[in-house]
Design goal:
Strand content: 5-15%
Order of helices and strands: EEEHEHHHHHHHEEEHHEHH
Number of helices: 12
Radius of gyration: 26 Å
Largest sheet: 8 strands, antiparallel
Shape: extended
Number of strands: 8
Amino acid sequence: MELRSPKIGRLNQGVIFTCAKAERYDGRQVFGLIITARCDLAQEKFPMLNYVPVVSLDDWLVTDGLDLMLSRASADTTGKLKGALKTAGIAESLLNSQSPRQIFDSFFLDDYSKGKKPAKQFFDIVEVCEFLASFQRNISLCIDNLYKQFDAQKKRLLEELIRHNLSGHYFLSRVFDGEEPRGYVALMREVTFIPRSLAMTIARGADARTLDAQGPLSWPSYISFQVDDFSMPISEIASPDIEHILQTFSLMFGRIGVTDADRDYINAVCSRIPDSQRVVG
């Protein structure tokens, strides 16, 4: 991804600026990626400047990325749990009334004491279920174990992110020109805005004292100086990367949802075999 230096005092689509805000990233460094149309910016016809928040990959992995990891880890573990029950001939509906630990005690405990492999495998699954269930009580202590224990899911998640296949999240290798590509994530679903007058001030660079001196505008509602103490453009994403970002953004919000085909119908179609009598010639 190519970054170029922004023109101080002038805003453009693709410009990244400091001191932006994101809902779940209070107290962390957040950048803003401008997505307002180029023509509106060039002619200064925008009443509000729209931007997408950008956060570091490290912060994303313990916030939005963590939610995705927990969801995938839970789905993976539930699948293994149901598979183990099916192999043992135990109805998975039992999970509606008993915990995995209770099922283990009732059906697997004797075999486990005898060292039988299926019982040991079920016990391991139970421990993972309990680990995930306790996660919210000890998040800071459990994050390392989560990412280590579900390393395959973590790698798949990050690969989807880097390849721009993770809906709602767009990977940027850097936000400062020349920095090491440590990774950032644009939060595509969290589009926000700042008033035009504040945006034009940021285009020239401003700190809290400068903004206070300008009058009654409630700038703390729009930007934050918790991490960076000066709000200004720091770079601009060049073509064709900015166009790809905007295309991804528009496809995400403009996609059309249709009813899924019936599963029985899909199975029936997939089981069909071509009729050799229909071959021509």
